[in-house]
Structure formats: C-alpha cells, structure tokens
Fold this sequence. Notes:
Elements lengths: L8 E4 L2 E4 L10 H5 L3 E8 L2 E2 L2 H15 L6 H14 L6 E8 L9 E6 L8 E4 L4 E2 L14 H12 L4 E6 L4 E4 L3 E6 L2 E4 L10 H12 L4 E3 L12 E6 L3 E8 L2 E2 L4 H14 L1
Amino acid sequence: MSSSSPALRLVHNGALRPADAALLTASDGLAVCGRGVFETIAAYRGIPFLLESHLERLRRGAEVFSLACPDDAAIRQAIGQVLDANDLLAEKARVRVTLSSPADGRESWWVEATPPPPHPPKARVITGPFVRNERSLLAGLKTINYGDNVVALAAARRAGADEALFANSRDELCEGTWSNVFVRIDGRWMTPPLSSGCLPGITRELVIRLFAEQAIPFAESTLSYAALDRVESAFLTSSLREIQPVAAIDGRDLENAAEMIILQSAYRWLTA
C-alpha cells in the first residue's frame, strides 16, 4: 500500500467505517473481562484462505461465550468490502474478524484488513517458564484472552528471538505464543495432539493433511518439553506465517530438513 493510499477502513456491524473509529462501550464484555473471540485469516488476491474452517472455529468460540454472530454471508461480504476499501485485492493481506459482547446482548462484530506483519524466513525460538493449562475452559478456543501470549512473546523479543514455546501443566510441548509447532526427532516428524491444550490451528490442520499427501512419515504425538533438546528440525505454522522453519531453539541451531521445503511448496501451490 503506497503512502498516497487513503486511510484504512474497517467494517463494523456491516457498515464501512474509519479503522480508528470507536467500536466498544465501557460495559462491553470484551473490555470488561475479555469476553470475545476472533479469527485471523490470510487473504490472497482478495480470496480469504480456508475461510470456512476459520468461520467454523469462530462459531465454536461464540457458542462457548454466548456471543451473537453474524451469518457467513455477512462476514464474507464484509471481508470483500474491507479488502477493496483498503486496496488489498491484489496482494496478500491480513484479515481479522472480531466478535465482542455488548451488555444488552446485541450483535457486535468487525472486520479489519491490513498488509500482513513481517515474519523472517526462519524463526529463532526460546523455551522458558511458559505454561498452558490444557484443562482450562478456554483451551482450544481463539479468544481475546491473550495475556499469557503477549508476556511470553515479549520475553522472546528481549532474548533476541521471534517466538516462545509453551509447555502444558504436564510438562509436555504445547504450542507457540501465536503458532503451532512441528518437530522432527530421530527422523520422525510430530506435532502435539489437541489434548496438549494447543489451539486447533487451521494451518496446523492443513499441514497435517499435506504430510499425508506428500507421504512424509508423521504423527500427532505427546512430547516431553525436555525432549526439545533432541529436536533436529522444526517449523511453526499459522495463517500468516504459513510454514516457517525454525533456525534455532534456545540458541541451538537446527537442520533445514528437506521435508520442510516439500511442505512449503505444496502449501504455496494451494495459495497460488
């Protein structure tokens, strides 16, 4: 987007508004107690990728929080409208759909579209005292309650890293602050199962399918957090990272496995 482009816009409850417009009252549950859910979606040349899966997860979260949710057609229309308004139809874009919770129970939602945030070709990752509660009532939901993630990511930044990995309460590998994680140990690729408490990532689900399609040995497998010392190769997944190789964990360099290149190629073919 050029410096001469108009100011960013968003769609709020179906209406196009300035991106800096006030959207919440002080009594909204999103502001009071984090009662809200969201989805972040990659759009390629105006087409939101894997949108049906994202909307399905959005509705699961809305049901848990008893949030009013617009129908799929309204969200699709809003995404197209805001991509067009922000001149993002010809490039990769970040789309975010958010549901909040007004005190009167009415519908409250908005859709944003911006250029994607920068991610390095490879990530440097740290571990630490970061614990995810796999028994939490919010486990597996994409809610506004991201305080743990923000604090852990800030610790990673201070350490010169790009991402931090969470264990769960059983000291098993869980996920990153904004990503799912795949690792290779003894030549075998694996990712933590959903029972670890990790988010059921939409990109994670797709990559699991790509492992099968590319005939690469793989399993969803419980892995001790301490076993990260044995990881040979790893990558992170999310809608905007896509498949991002990990360069190092806690300063220990990892291999650039050929399988990652195969998976990246298959993924990019789907978005072409």
